[in-house]
Amino acid sequence: MQNTSPQPHPGTAAQPGKYLTFTLGHESYGIPVLKVREIIRLCPITPVANMPADVKGVINLRGKVIPVVDIRAKFRLPIGADHDRICIVVTQIAAPAGGTRLYGVIVDGVEEVANFSAADIEPTPDFGNAIDARFITGMAKSGDAVKSLIDLEKIAACEGPAAVRESHEPGPP
Predict the structure, then answer these.
(1) What would the pLDDT profile of 25-78 be if each residue is shown by its tens digit?
(2) What average pLDDT is seen over the chain?
(3) Is the Cβ–Cβ distance between 53 and 71 less than 8 Å?
């Protein structure tokens, strides 16, 4: 039987550099700091019909309409308690039609900007079929902790029309 679990491609491995690290529950994650445009307080989000559960809706940020995704829901993590550190990290990612677009992600709290060298970053371990690791580009060692480095472009690519259809289609009986 062929293993169909998505594995990282060589072109998507985490690269050394600066990462914005943030928390989701008790776990730490990182995204390349060059993709971050700003960090804002959680604000009212306008829901949009027929979106997957992790797409919370859109916000109007200085005249620009930006989609907002709850990364915790995307990763199927337990719902956390509301607190004043929850924020939206506004990022700039590649647009499907070329160019770039703004993309907001809800996180439990921002930690720091960390500089990870090549020696700090290891490839994503093989979790087998236990978890879906396609969004993880590598693991960064930071002291005694490990931070999962994620690819927002892959996360955003899963929000397309097929993802919406799949989220509303009944599962197998």
Answers:
(1) 889 999 999 999 999 999 999 999 999 989 999 999 999 999 999 988 888 888
(2) 83
(3) no
Amino acid identity at 135:
F
Q: Residue 113 is which amino acid?
A: V
Q: Which two tokens stand for residue 87?
A: 């924020």
CB atoms within 10 A of CB 116: 21
- Cβ(66)–Cβ(90) under 8 Å? yes
Could you write out the three-class secondary structure of the chain?
CCCCCCCCCHHHCCCCEEEEEEEECCEEEEEEHHHEEEEEECCCCECCCCCCCCEEEEEEECCEEEEEEEHHHHCCCCCCCCCCCCEEEEEEEECCCCCEEEEEEEECEEEEEEEECHHHEECCCCCCCCCCCCCEEEEEEECCEEEEEECHHHHHHCCCHHHHHHHHCCCCC
Contact of 108 with 23, CB cutoff 8 Å: yes
Name the pLDDT band for 2 (thresholds 50, 70, 90): very low
Phi, psi (5° rounding) for residue 11? -75, -10
